[in-house]
Amino acid sequence: MFLAWIEATHDQEIVRKLNEALRRSQYRYELFRQYAGKSLDRLWADFLESEAARGRS
Question: pTM to 2 decimals?
Fold first, then answer.
């Protein structure tokens, strides 16, 4: 769900891009900032917030 949320809210191609980086042994956490504009920790916090808000609706 987390990666689907990032695709829906930040970068529709992030899974493909991360997969490519993994295949080339070039994956690093900083790719989330590069592709989605936020750190992995910030994205996770935002995701949890959005899920909590969805649960309140």
Answer: 0.87
